[in-house]
């Protein structure tokens, strides 16, 4: 919901309805009863962005109603983390006290962690000067936050552009470098449950001799770090340079040393595996040395294209995490020709919305 409205007393019923929709959507397949992973009903979202509205001497956070597109003033954000709610009003009050910080400010973004780290990004319709930086820097110490100023073709970082998230997965603490303006899972509690599920459904792979994993769309290594425990070697692909850099930092922080990342798209990796064309970005990788048993995919909302579907079908096990059940269903119509659905999970990443995040384990028939 656009204003972050919560209905804790209705949460279980709304989640039950969501699970029923998932089962109905996949009713054409032979599916097990889905595992349903619940979210905290409030303060679950680690990221938030608000437009800024100026009325005379007053400046407000606003969001737009999804149905009417009318602007709605936001004074609190119940779905946002406790840290976001602690910072919202005091930060805005401080910005309004100095015209150089307030003038032409049009958006404020928050990135927080479960441990309380925070980045506040200030977006402007003006170029930022040394005077702006001098005015903004004291807020960093005042609120214990990192501050980033953005304008057209301009980014000023005071002094870091990342936070370090800590996630508890199957009894172990993992640390993740999360860079401002890069994709990270918004619901940290659900992310922990997604990672635990992925680790558990691939845990049997560790007993197989020289069993390797390929992962497409690895991002900052969110799943890669966890899954690497269950395999001898991991080959992961990711197109975003900043995400690849974060992934390498995350491997180092978590002592993960059996992963190789290729900065390329899934389509390019398919071509490489098919030996259709060589890639300099794979010059350091001997694809023939891998003994892949499992593939992990967490694609964008568009799902898998036909060529990637064909690639995925080569593997004995497929672990598919999806943010769009409609395209997941379309992909399963192809994948179920060669594989059976062993496990189905619903992760309530976005409570109080129609959004369904799901996970599927498929094994070869």
Automatic annotation (TrEMBL):
Keywords, alphabetical: Methyltransferase, S-adenosyl-L-methionine, Transferase, tRNA processing
Catalytic reaction(s) noted: uridine(341) in tmRNA + S-adenosyl-L-methionine = 5-methyluridine(341) in tmRNA + S-adenosyl-L-homocysteine + H(+); uridine(54) in tRNA + S-adenosyl-L-methionine = 5-methyluridine(54) in tRNA + S-adenosyl-L-homocysteine + H(+)
PROSITE patterns the record matches: SAM_MT_RNA_M5U (PS51687), TRMA_1 (PS01230), TRMA_2 (PS01231)
EC code(s) of this entry: 2.1.1.35
Residues involved in S-adenosyl-L-methionine binding: 185, 217, 222, 238, 298
One of the GO biological process terms: methylation
Molecular function GO terms recorded: tRNA (uracil(54)-C5)-methyltransferase activity, S-adenosyl methionine-dependent
Active site (catalytic residues): 323 (nucleophile), 323, 357 (proton acceptor)
InterPro entries linked to this entry: MeTrfase_TrmA_AS, MeTrfase_TrmA_CS, SAM-dependent_MTases_sf, TrmA_MeTrfase, U5_MeTrfase_fam
Entry coiled-coil feature ranges: none
Family: Belongs to the class I-like SAM-binding methyltransferase superfamily. RNA M5U methyltransferase family. TrmA subfamily.
Xref: NCBIfam families: trmA_only
PANTHER family: TRNA/TMRNA (URACIL-C(5))-METHYLTRANSFERASE, TRNA_TMRNA (URACIL-C(5))-METHYLTRANSFERASE
Function: Dual-specificity methyltransferase that catalyzes the formation of 5-methyluridine at position 54 (m5U54) in all tRNAs, and that of position 341 (m5U341) in tmRNA (transfer-mRNA).
Protein name: tRNA/tmRNA (uracil-C(5))-methyltransferase
Primary gene name: trmA
């Amino acid at each position: 919901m656009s204003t972050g409205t919560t209905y804790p007393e209705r949460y279980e019923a709304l989640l039950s309805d969501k699970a029923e929709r998932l089962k109905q959507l996949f009713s054409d397949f032979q599916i097990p009863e889905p595992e349903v992973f619940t979210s905290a009903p409030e303060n679950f979202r680690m990221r938030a962005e608000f437009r800024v509205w100026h009325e005379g001497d007053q400046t407000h956070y606003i969001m737009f109603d999804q149905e009417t597109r009318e602007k709605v003033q936001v004074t609190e954000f119940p779905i946002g983390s406790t840290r976001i709610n602690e910072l919202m009003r005091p930060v805005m009050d401080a910005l309004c006290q100095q015209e150089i910080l307030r003038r032409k400010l049009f958006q404020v973004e928050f990135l927080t962690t479960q441990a309380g780290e925070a980045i506040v990004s200030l977006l402007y319709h003006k170029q930022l000067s040394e005077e702006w930086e001098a005015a903004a820097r004291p807020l960093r110490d005042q609120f214990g936050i990192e501050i980033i100023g953005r304008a057209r073709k301009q980014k000023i970082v005071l002094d870091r552009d990342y936070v370090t998230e800590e996630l508890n997965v199957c009894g172990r603490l993992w640390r993740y470098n999360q860079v401002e303006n890069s994709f990270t899972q918004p619901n940290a509690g659900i992310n922990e449950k997604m990672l635990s599920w992925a680790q558990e459904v691939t845990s049997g792979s560790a007993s197989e001799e020289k069993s390797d994993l390929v992962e497409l769309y690895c991002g900052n290594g969110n799943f890669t770090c966890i899954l690497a425990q269950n395999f001898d070697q991991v080959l992961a692909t990711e197109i975003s340079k900043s995400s690849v850099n974060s992934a390498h930092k995350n491997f180092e922080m978590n002592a993960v040393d059996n992963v190789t990342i290729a900065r390329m798209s899934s389509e390019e990796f398919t071509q490489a595996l098919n030996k259709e064309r060589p890639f300099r970005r794979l010059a350091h990788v001997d694809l023939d040395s891998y003994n892949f048993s499992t593939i992990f995919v967490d694609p964008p909302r568009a799902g898998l294209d036909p060529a990637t579907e064909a690639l995925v079908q080569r593997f004995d096990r497929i672990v598919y995490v999806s943010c769009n059940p409609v395209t997941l269903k379309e992909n399963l119509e192809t994948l179920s020709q060669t594989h059976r659905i062993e496990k189905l999970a619903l992760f309530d990443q976005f409570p109080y919305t129609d959004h369904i995040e799901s996970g599927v384990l498929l094994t070869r028939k």
